[in-house]
Structure formats: C-alpha cells, structure tokens
Amino acid sequence: MSAKGGHHVSDTDSDITVGPEDSDVTTESPHKSPVKLPSLSKRRSEVHEISESEEESEEYFILKGTSKGKGKSSLFNSLKSTSEQNESKSLVKQSNKSSETLTKLKSQEKTTKSSSECFSKSLDNRTKPSSETLTKSIEKRSKPSSETLTKSIDKKTKLSPETLTKSHDKRTKPSSESVTKSSEKKTKSFTEIENWLDKIDSSPEAEKVDIKKRFHSPVEKGKHSDYKPSPSSGLKRKQTVLLEEEKKTVSRKKPPCQYGSKCYRKNPSHLQEFSHSDDNQQTSGSSRTTQESPPRKKPKISITGPRSPDQVYSEGQPYSFFLTKVHGIQNQYNQVLAMDIKDILSPIMGTLQASCQFNYMFEIPWLMKQYPEQFRSKPLLLVHGFTAGNKTALEIEATKYSNIKFCQARLEMIYGTHHTKMMMLLYEEGMRVVIHTSNLVERDWYQKTQGMWISPLFPKLKKEENKSNFSRGDSPTNFKKDLLDYIGSYKAYQLKDWQQNIADHDMSSAKVVIIGSSPGRHMAENKHKFGHMRLRKVLNTHGPPKDFVKSWPVIGQYSSIGSLGATKDAWLATEFLQSLATVEGSSCVPLASINLKLIFPTKDNVRCSLEGYPAGASIPYSINVAKKQTYLTSYFHHWISKGRGRSRAMPHIKSYCRPSPSSQEVAWFLVTSANLSKAAWGALEKKGSQLMIRSYELGVLFLPKFFGSKKTIPVSSDINDTDKLLLPYDLPLKPYQKEDRPWIWDIAYKELPDCNGNMWCPS
C-alpha cells in the first residue's frame, strides 16, 4: 500500500492506517584537505629566528628536552637571544650585561670551536627521548599551511645565508663597545654553526628528514598557560636537526622484532621501536620464528571518510550482515557495516539486467529513483500480496513505468500477509540475493533500524550435458535448494524465469541457512519445511551441543506482536520456545531452565526517538491484544543500541539469537521478516500433526559451523569490533522496571510531547 498523502501504513499482520508522517534533513560535515609543508631547505634561515619569548621561557627548554642552564644549553640561550633582539630595548639590556656574562660567553665560545662531531654528540646527550615519546611528540605537532609558513618566514627573516653576518651586524650596532665585541664573537659562533649545518644538509641522511613529522609542545595542551605560540610559526630549523639526530639515535638501538619481515603489526610506534629486517628472524631469548607468526587479524575499519558500496560490502565479510543507514545519528555509525538502498542497487555492485522485489509495501515513484538512471528501464517484477482496491492503486502507480510487472502472492488464510522482503538482482556478471527487513517506502530507509543480508555475487554455471542446473552449484547449507523450494511455494507462473535464473547460477559460496514461512497447513514431510518447525529441524541438525548451551538464554527482538494466547503456555513458552531452544540431536529440552528474553520498545523509547511518536506507527501492538496477554511484560527488555548509535532509531528489524551468559558469543543468530506472532511462525494443530501458517516470511540463519567455528560465533555491538558479528542491539539486555510500559500504538499519549513537540492521538 502506498504511504502517500501524509498517512502511515503499518507493517504488521493486518492492514492498518495511522498518523502523520515525519521527515528530517541531515547534512554531512566537509572534510579538510591535506596541508602541504615547505621543504627542509626552505626553512634554512629559521635557525636564527627563535622568538625572544620562546627562548627565555622554561617552555622552550621543555620543548627541546633539555634543562635550563645545563651544559651547552646555556650557549644556545645566549646565541638565540642575541640573534632575536629586533628592538632597541633588548639591545640596551644586552649592553648593560655584567662582565660576568662576557666571561661566561668567552668560555662557552671555546667550547663551540670543537668539531661538528663533538657538537653532534652533545645533541645526542641532550635529546634522547624514547621512541614512544618521540612518536607522540611528532603526532601532536601542529601543521600550518605552506602559505602561512612562507609569509611568516619572509616577514620575520629576509636573510640569505650569504648576508646573514651583515644582517646580524646591522641589527647589533649599539654604542656600547662591549655589545659590539660580544656580537662579533657571537657572529663567529653562528658562522661555525652554519658550516656544521651545511655539512648536515649535504649528507644523504638529510634527505630522509620528514618535515611533516613535527613536535607538539605540551604548552598547547594547557600545561603552561603563559606560553602562547603563534598559529603561523613554523618548525624551527634546530628542532628539525635535533629530530634527525634523535631518529638516528633511536634507529641505532632498535632491537629486532621477533616476527621479522612477516610481522603483521602496523602501529607506527612498533615500527620505530623494532627493526624488521629479513636477517633478524628470531629474537634473542625467544624460540618463536617468523614461520610461527600469529594469524593476521582483520584490520579495524577506518571511519575518516566515505567508502564505496563494494568496500563496505568487503568489510562486512564473512557474515555479510548490515544495517541500513540512519539520518540524524553520528556519521561514524553510518560508515561501519551500514548500507542504503542506493548502495545495494549501485552499478559498483554489478551491471543490472533485471530485478525482482518481494515486499509488503511499495512506493513505486520513490523506488524507481533509488535505481541508477541507467537501470530504471530494466525489467522489474514486484511480488506483493495486495487485493481489490489496494492492488488497483498499486497498478495505477506503475502505469508510468512500462518495465514494471506484477506477481500477486496468493493468501488463502485470513489475516495473512505477504511480509517477505527480498531482492533478486540479475547482473551481466552473475546474480545476487538480498534478504532484508525494510518495506520499499521512503520512511523505512530513513530513521529506523533495519537489517539485511547481502549474498556474494553468484557466478553463472557452465552448461553440462545430461545434468540439470537445479541440482548443481548448491552450498553446504542447501541455500539454493531451499530458495527454490520457497519460491516454488508461490506457485506463480510469473516467477518461473527467476526460478531458472536461480538454477543457472552457482550458489555454493552462500554460508547462511534459509528460514522461510509460506501460508497453508503443512503436514507430514512438509511440516518441517517452513515456520518455527523449519528452525527446529535445522537446529536439530546443525545446532549447538546440549551441555554446552544448557544455561544460555534465548533472545527474541521484533517490531510487532500478535495474539499469542491467554497464557504463556498456550504457544510462546511451549512450542515456540521449544523450537528456539532446540539443540543438536534433540528438541526435547527442559523448557523451565530456558530463560526467554524479549526486546520491545517502551513508550518512552518511542517518545524520545528520532521520529517521535510517529515511529510507533510501525510498531503495532494493540491495547486489546495487550490486555489479554499481560504475562508478556515479565519477558520484556528495553531497546538499547548505543554501540551501533541507534538507540533513538526505532527497530523495524526482527532478529533472534542464543547468546552466552558472558554476551561475547552466540550459538546462532537469525535475521528475518517474521515478527512475534503465530501468523508469521505458525502454530501446531491436530495434536502436532500439522503446522498452520498465515503469512509469507523469509530470513537467514547464521550457524558457527558454516563460518569456520566449531561451537559459537563471536559477537559485539561495538563498531570497532568489526572482526565479530555486530548485533543491532547492546548486550547484556536491560529488563523493564516497574514504571516502564510497552508501546501501545492505538491509545493516546498526551501527558508528555515527543522530541518534536507532538502528542499522539490515534483516531
């Protein structure tokens, strides 16, 4: 049903219309472009231009890693203060210095006449920070732009190396004879330093200096409030020389890494601390060699910039489970294992030839805009469950698009719906299947939490004589066979071409198990083909060992609740829980020992959500049903998704799992379109001889054995744990408190407005 004209249409087991629709717009923050810095040779003259305030303050010595008044640091203080006296007041002060200062200068000048090798040694002794300190100092250093640096250098010093002495003489011409003598002596000292720096510049090591790796003074972090560095001040030449000397000192003392050249670590501090040459294949005192290097871990996903859909898809392997992007949350949460419908249909994912969309609700004009322009004329089949007026309205919407055709799913059971959400995408390169939880309407892809599984790109099978493609190219999970069985249950001629497309492709790379529901009364062998009995059969064959999960709870998370019976033993805590608690080789498990936990939003969860009260239009739970099953409240837990940034994005996703008591792993995980209802999962009849299902549903089950693990799948909700299966909600769960009430969608809420200032007054 279309959701036009400001009306919400619920995604539930019955067709209900409620409330106005809400919308919002978000913007992305611009990214800064990288800054180019001047080369080392252009910063040559800065050796004479250290500001007076920086020179004479204690912070300067902290920046240099030396202490004030020790050794040759005093000489540098004297040399720097003389070269930076640009004002007459400072020159007068210099002329009034005592004879004791002149005596010290003479003694210090004798020291400066030593060779460059001695000077280099003194630098080594003065600055030997650890590699860790050096790395932090480099990372924290500010990076002014090249234009700012050039202007700052030109403004401060317009001196060439040839005229440096003349310029210095002009700046130091006080009448005092003592000052003149002092300046002449210091000019000689600077000339010696210049000669030494020329040797450094001409050496091969000078080319290795990276001007971008800079110091960052602790003053800029507020440790010294009286020091205010200019934002345009550049890297001092002497600091660069000191940095180069420190690098040489550190590199000479690098111990070999125990993993040698095969080390998998990429941390800069590790690379600076240890050498990784091929010669050092074994660390002294350790028997582990490079052949025994630890397994390479999956790198953490960078969240500094946007990535293409194929990159996001690649980062989501091997589980290939994603959430939809949400408008109104921090951008970092949309950059990790999250995709939009445009990402799924992007040309990067494949060159589309035809597509088939299974769903409950459609907005055809919006849907067509999600396809890339070059694919909008490709054949599109829409599989729906509408009848009468709703069917007519849908067909009228599609009259503008000659490439759209329809397949009406038969719904012989009253109150049944076509609730399956699946895309089948046929490419030039192969075929892809997407099983998800979103209606094909704009609001479902805007500010809700939705989930999806995206298959690998299935290649086309090569033709072989006397062999049917229907029996070839299946996976260990029987994905191909089960998908064909599910589509075959529609008994629709419009789907024959797609059944052939499935048969013609190699789906052996699929690692999930299909769990579907199809309307009807299923008996004998067909009883275990669909619904919760299908889940029971799969867990009986591939589920966890009984003793291993004896104390593990079962979690159900959904967006709608049907009529489950007057007591918990009518269906929920008996036949349904029996299927969820099934273990390998047995479905006869003492149910009293199984802790069932259900996640359902509270009234305040909805009120404080991104959409406000209108979000509740997609979370249908009626007051009449709630009054008949008050026992459910004791099972309820809050919707909390801080790890994925979606606590305020109300869930339309449906998922079920069996986590460990530590919340670090699961025995299995299921994402599906099936809500908590008999219509979706089915109910046993005639003493358990048949299973009655009203609706079409589809989901995929993740089992450890098909992902290379023996018993469990590691899980988390932290976006930094991308090597694990990321759940849509946080563990452990938070149970309802006495004051908490589940969201009821057909009663008024006028006590408190929602986050948008609205009340909830359903008609």
UniProtKB/TrEMBL annotation:
Record GO terms (molecular function): 3'-tyrosyl-DNA phosphodiesterase activity; double-stranded DNA binding; exonuclease activity; single-stranded DNA binding
Q: What class of enzyme is it?
A: hydrolase
Q: Which residues form the PBZ-type domain?
A: 254-278
Designated name of the protein? Tyrosyl-DNA phosphodiesterase 1
Q: Which organism is it from?
A: Mytilus galloprovincialis (Mediterranean mussel)
Query: According to the UniProt entry, what is the EC number of this protein?
Result: 3.1.4.-
Say which domain of life the source belongs to: Eukaryota
Instruction: Give me the ranges of the annotated region Disordered.
Output: 1-312
